[in-house]
């Protein structure tokens, strides 16, 4: 089925497909049905000490007497004096802290983005109609709500958010598209065609009034007029492409269910997506009329794929395997990299720089590389977190987050 025919897409902007409704602002008051969770933080010893010293003033004499008593204790008990600093130093080694969030238990966090014009101002998305906002760089978060969504009987799953300047976009399931032009202070809802193939899983702000939107059936749409019109960037869904190419040797295409398991975009606009069964993957470059399917060259099924900071690809397989492509750009040649996954699946990789990256996965596993992915070491920061970590996002080299289920959010400390 040709998407252009199904959606009756047109480049004639005088015949808009999508009409913008009046702006709908977020309610500023948090929903009362949500409960505030008091979750423990990593590396909060220093903050607690600072707060305590500010709230209680001691006299000089009292301070001197306590210092003398402490010195005597350390002198007479060398064993305990040697253990305590080591324990404190080990705690300080963690580069992540757990952030308390005012959300219901069971919420899965899905995406996060910050306003480029105000790096401390960001939004966090998740299941159960979850949108949180921060204005202090992610240290604290407050709920935001959409009146138009709450009036309906849908419980939205907000999948993706992106900002370019003060302009931002949010997409979710069931089909919902939100747009802001004032850094998220107010949002307008843009209605979508009922003939849209698949669910929207990704959106990327690309310029003024411009965005790129992807569905889980492989449809890619582009707008340059704030969503009034959308033009198809590919000529057909992935199912239609595979029906034409199944005889060309794509293994597993006959079992394709028509949706993506994951999709990731490179900074220069290239896409890589994994089939829902993980038995092959697909790529797309700007200007190509169709997605290009590729056989997997590894024995196990693919879990996720994405882009390295140097332009190459990383590939995760079920069971905790990690592969890196040889060279940069699109390729089918990968080599396995040994990782200490302890048998748990790795679900995502996020690059802080060309050399440093973090991988996250099941049962709170966190892995780090400092040589571009050649070797990985396990960070114990999340060992005691009973949650799966789904996504690693670095906003810049000093701001990063790990998103998981049950409302787990880790913030990078550096």
Automatic annotation (TrEMBL):
Keywords, alphabetical: Photosynthesis, Photosystem II
Species, as recorded: Prunus dulcis (Almond)
Domain of life of the organism encoding this protein: Eukaryota
GO BP annotations listed: photosynthesis
Domain (Photosynthesis system II assembly factor Ycf48/Hcf136-like) ranges: 91-412
The protein's name in its UniProt record: PREDICTED: photosystem II
Keyword Nuclease: no
Keyword Ligase attached: no
GO cellular component, one term: photosystem II
Xref: Pfam families: PSII_BNR (PF14870)
């Amino acid at each position: 089925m040709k998407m252009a025919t199904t959606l009756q897409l047109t480049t004639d902007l005088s015949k808009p497909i999508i009409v913008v409704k009046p702006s709908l602002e977020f309610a500023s008051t948090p929903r009362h049905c949500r409960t505030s969770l008091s979750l423990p933080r990593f590396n909060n010893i220093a903050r607690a000490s600072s707060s305590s010293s500010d709230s209680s003033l001691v006299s000089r004499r009292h301070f001197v007497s306590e210092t003398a008593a402490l010195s005597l204790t350390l002198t007479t008990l060398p064993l305990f004096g040697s253990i305590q600093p080591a324990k404190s130093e080990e705690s300080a080694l963690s580069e992540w802290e757990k952030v308390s969030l005012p959300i219901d238990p069971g919420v899965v966090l899905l995406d996060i983005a910050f306003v480029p014009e105000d790096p401390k101002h960001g939004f966090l998305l998740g299941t159960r109609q979850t949108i949180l906002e921060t204005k202090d760089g992610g240290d604290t978060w407050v709920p935001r709500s959409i009146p138009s969504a709450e009036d309906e009987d849908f419980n939205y799953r907000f999948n993706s958010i992106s900002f370019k300047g003060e302009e931002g976009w949010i997409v979710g399931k069931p089909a919902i598209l939100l747009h802001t032009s004032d850094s998220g202070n107010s949002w307008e809802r843009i209605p979508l065609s009922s003939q849209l193939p698949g669910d929207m899983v990704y959106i990327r702000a690309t310029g003024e009034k411009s965005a790129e939107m992807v569905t889980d059936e492989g449809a890619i749409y582009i707008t340059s007029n704030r969503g009034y019109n959308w033009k198809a960037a590919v000529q057909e869904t992935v199912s239609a492409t595979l029906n034409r190419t199944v005889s060309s040797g794509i293994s597993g295409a006959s079992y394709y269910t028509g949706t993506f398991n994951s999709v990731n975009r490179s900074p220069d606009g290239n896409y890589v997506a994994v089939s829902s069964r993980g038995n092959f993957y697909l790529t797309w470059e700007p200007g190509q009329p169709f997605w290009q399917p590729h056989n997997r060259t590894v024995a196990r099924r693919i879990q996720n794929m994405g882009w390295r900071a140097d332009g190459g690809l990383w590939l995760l397989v079920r069971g905790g395997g990690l592969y890196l492509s040889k060279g940069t750009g699109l390729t089918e040649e990968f080599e396995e990299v040994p990782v200490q996954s302890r048998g748990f699946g790795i679900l995502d990789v996020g690059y802080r720089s060309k050399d440093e990256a973090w991988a996250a996965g099941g049962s709170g596993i966190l892995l780090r590389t400092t040589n571009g992915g050649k070797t990985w070491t396990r960070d114990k920061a999340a060992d005691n977190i009973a949650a799966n970590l789904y996504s690693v996002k670095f906003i810049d080299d000093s701001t990063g987050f790990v998103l998981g289920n049950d409302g787990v959010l880790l913030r990078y400390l550096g």
